[in-house]
Amino acid sequence: MKKAFLYLAVVFISVSAIAQTQWKVDPHHSSLNFNISHSGISIVNGKFLEYTGNLTTNDKALKDSKFEFTVDVKSIDTNVDARDNHLKSADFFEVEKHPTMTFKSTKMVASKKANHYTLHGDLTIKGITKPVVFEVTYGGIAKGDKGEKLGMKAQTTINRFDYNINYDPTAAGIGKEVTIIVHLQFAKQ
């Protein structure tokens, strides 16, 4: 009886491991964008150009998948060099001390709406980790000459003050809330 249980446990673990699919973010077909209000009258858009990400799915389903993402903060780009350099300074991201930001999922839950999920996880910026929830729209899987690709869009809004990014001179009127919009394409490994 004990041997039979052990055998079933080994088979179950082996089948579970086989069913998992590994995916790696394709930076040539992905983008990591953000926007924030400025002076209360307009929006400033920006993006990060260098990042890595991995997704582990149970076969090809997103439910219960695991997601990890690392961003090189020095790669920030708002199309204004002076602003980008200021964002890298101690007033904002302090990139010399905190060169990366990370996200690690804690759970992915299917929504009642088809192809929609909530992605829960921990976002770390400037050494401060806070839970966040992304709304995810699953784009599906495409097969091509270079293998399978999986696509999704994820969006959330965070308060930058939660991460000690609290530079806010009265005259500038920089918003506290930052909307993060991520378009991702993953390549099957």
From TrEMBL:
<keyword id="KW-0732">Signal</keyword>
<feature type="domain" description="Lipid/polyisoprenoid-binding YceI-like">
    <location>
        <begin position="22"/>
        <end position="187"/>
    </location>
</feature>
<dbReference type="InterPro" id="IPR007372">
    <property type="entry name" value="Lipid/polyisoprenoid-bd_YceI"/>
</dbReference>
<dbReference type="Pfam" id="PF04264">
    <property type="entry name" value="YceI"/>
</dbReference>
<feature type="signal peptide">
    <location>
        <begin position="1"/>
        <end position="19"/>
    </location>
</feature>
<protein>
    <submittedName>
        <fullName>Polyisoprenoid-binding protein</fullName>
    </submittedName>
</protein>
<dbReference type="InterPro" id="IPR036761">
    <property type="entry name" value="TTHA0802/YceI-like_sf"/>
</dbReference>
